[in-house]
């Protein structure tokens, strides 16, 4: 990745790989509720790996109603979309279109967007890839 140049799908895949490489179960102070067991973390991490899709640019509608294009990097079995906002350097959670069955979570996980697809609705959850996935 060169500084200032737009990211490519390969660049985003490298960001995703780096996030996954650094993923470790570290229970610590300040957690709300009971901490997870390491086995649950490992199972969730395996589910994240299964949810990954080749990075593709898709429209997302922010909480303010503005539409921006971000990189879709994963689709959960529940239908949620994990995206990478290159401008902010962070991952976020969104729900496709107007709800379940209306967008990037439909059909085969090929990362392709339908031409007339409604923008996915961003939820108020941003941060690292693993944290966003676990917070879904």
Spatial strand order of the main sheet: 1-2-3-4-5
Taking the sheet with the most strands, its summary is: 5 strands, mixed, barrel
Report the end-to-end length measured between terminal Cα atoms: 29 Å
What coarse outline follows from CA principal-axis ratios? globular
Rg calc: 15 Å
Counting helices, strands and paired strands, the structural category is: alpha+beta
Number of helices: 3
DSSP strand tally? 5
β-sheet strand percentage: 25-35%
User: H/E element string?
Assistant: HHEEEEEH
Helix fraction?
10-25%
- Report the uncertain regions: 99-116
Mean pLDDT: 83
Note the main attributes of this structure:
single chain; about 140 residues; alpha+beta; five-stranded mixed beta barrel; 5 strands; about 25% helix; about 30% strand; globular
How are the SSEs placed, and which strands pair?
Elements: H1 9-21, H2 38-51, E1 52-61, E2 67-75, E3 81-85, E4 90-95, E5 120-127, H3 129-134
Parallel strand pairs: 1-5
Antiparallel strand pairs: 1-2, 2-3, 3-4, 4-5
Describe, in short, the structure shown.
Helices cover 24% and strands 28% of the residues.
Explain how this protein is built.
The protein has 136 residues and is of the alpha+beta class. 24% of the residues lie in helices and 28% in strands. A five-stranded mixed barrel has the order 1-2-3-4-5. Strand 3 (81-85) and strand 4 form a beta hairpin. The relative contact order is 0.18.
């Amino acid at each position: 990745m060169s500084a200032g140049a737009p990211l490519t799908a390969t660049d985003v895949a490298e960001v995703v790989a780096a996030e996954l490489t650094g993923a470790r179960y570290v229970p610590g102070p300040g957690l709300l509720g009971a901490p997870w067991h390491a086995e649950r973390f490992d199972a969730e991490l395996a589910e994240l790996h299964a949810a990954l899709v080749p990075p593709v640019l898709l429209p997302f509608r922010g909480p303010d109603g503005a539409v921006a294009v971000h990189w879709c990097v994963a689709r959960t079995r529940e239908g949620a979309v994990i995206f990478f906002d290159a401008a902010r350097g962070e991952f976020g959670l969104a729900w496709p279109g107007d709800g379940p069955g209306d967008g990037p979570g439909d059909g085969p996980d090929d990362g392709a967007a339908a031409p007339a697809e409604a923008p996915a609705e961003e939820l108020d959850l941003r941060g690292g890839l693993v944290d966003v996935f676990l917070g879904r």
